[in-house]
Amino acid sequence: MSNFKFVTTLSLLASLALPMTAQAGVVPTGIQAGVSAATVTGWGWKECHRSAVNASSAIANVLDACQGTHLMMGFASAAGQYDILGAGSYAAVTKITYADHTSDNNGAKLDNWSNGLNFYRTEGYGSWGFTTNKITELYSADIFLRNGVQVEFGKAEGELSKGLSFHVYNGSLTSGWSYNLTGNDIVSMYSGDRVFLSYTEKSADVPEPGILVLIGIGLAGAGIARRRKA
Question: Which structural domain range is residue 110 located in?
Fold first, then answer.
């Protein structure tokens, strides 16, 4: 085989590999509002847990079912669309940031940011969710989600708080609570579903195993052809 044909063969195999490489998905930054289920699926996410917000659900079941590099949490009032979503790394979303809502951690500055959101979770009695603020106050879930700038326990950030909060009680998600998309538009959740979605990050530059085998076979064949011509 001539050098020209050999190079041409390699170029053809490389071009075949391009559409078969693992495609990178989308990990959205910040709060997502009114997103369709089809859009989220297209981003590469899979719904791994859904339960009614007015019912109890063990957090351990959520964590077991939603393994991946990233975790998204949100609320859906109807099928086919999510009212609010927030995504972060699995470690950030699931991290315990407060021991209990009645502890001295109230009004504390969080530093658990991922993809533009500050995630928080109590181990005992309190809440689990995300906010755009640096401060959360867990007197009853995240009271900063109430309309306007809140001042509780003598602390306030001075910004309207946006985010999501689910009630937590001793290892279980319990009834309610609320979300706020604008800082002045609180929605209390007493019906509808809490949802969790998982995503596993893949490299967009690593060919899938099948195409690697194809390239190997092609290279071997090209080598044999060259030896026969010699």
Answer: 25-201
